[in-house]
């Protein structure tokens, strides 16, 4: 097979399998997995891309998790208003992870941003998880845990997609 057909077959079959698994489990985030899956492909769809996607997605999740803790734990929101305090914390953490991209292992700013964004997407869509108790829990209520698990699985599905596509391409 040639062209986009092998990719279309492998990605559609694996996307169906991933959706079935994620919806069956019910606590991991299919949308975060798809973000990491896409990140793997836009990063080059090879071994170094998998490493970069996983490391930088996780780094972004950690940065957002820290930002959420700072926003909640330091009561400046009361004197500055939450939007202003949140904006300051986000500005500082995004600036910090951008500077950290000078470290080769953390060099994919887009992959870091995807992890950061997925973390806040989770926290803002599930406001009952946006509290210090949840952020420090050892459960899937903790954004640090559930977003990282979801994104790592998504990156692995991306890797599996590229391998399956290669098999289909060679099967002529």
Outline of the structure:
With 172 residues, this protein is an all-alpha fold. The protein has helices at residues 5-25, 30-42, 47-73, 76-80, 82-99, 109-125, 132-135, 143-170.
List keywords for this structure.
172 residues; mainly alpha; elongated
Provide structural commentary.
- Helix 2 packs across helix 3, helix 3 runs antiparallel to helix 5 and helix 6 (109-125) crosses helix 8 (143-170).
- The chain is elongated, with a radius of gyration of 18 Å.
- The chain has helices at 5-25, 30-42, 47-73, 76-80, 82-99, 109-125, 132-135, 143-170.
- The model has no long low-confidence stretch (mean pLDDT 94).
- Helix content is 77%, strand content 0%.
- The protein is built from eight helices and no strands.
- It is mostly helical and 172 residues long.
Task: Note the beta-strand portion.
Answer: under 5%
* Ends distance: 6 Å
Average pLDDT score: 94
Q: How many strand elements?
A: 0
Q: Rounded to an integer, what's the Rg over CA atoms? A: 18 Å
């Amino acid at each position: 097979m040639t062209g986009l057909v092998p990719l279309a077959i492998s990605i559609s079959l694996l996307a169906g399998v991933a959706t079935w698994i994620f919806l069956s489990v019910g606590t991991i985030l299919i949308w975060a997995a798809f973000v990491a899956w896409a990140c793997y492909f836009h990063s080059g769809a090879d071994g170094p891309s998998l490493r970069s996607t996983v490391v930088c997605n996780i780094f972004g999740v950690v940065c957002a998790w820290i930002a959420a803790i700072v926003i909640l734990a330091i009561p400046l929101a009361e004197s500055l208003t939450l939007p202003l305090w949140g904006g300051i914390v986000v500005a500082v953490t995004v600036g910090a992870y951008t500077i950290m991209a000078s470290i080769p292992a953390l060099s994919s700013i887009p992959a870091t941003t995807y992890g950061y964004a997925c973390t806040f997407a989770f926290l803002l869509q599930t406001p009952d998880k946006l509290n210090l108790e949840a952020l420090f829990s050892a459960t899937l209520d903790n954004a640090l845990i559930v977003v990282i698990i979801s994104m790592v699985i998504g990156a692995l599905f991306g890797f599996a997609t590229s391998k399956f596509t290669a098999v289909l391409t060679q099967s002529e």
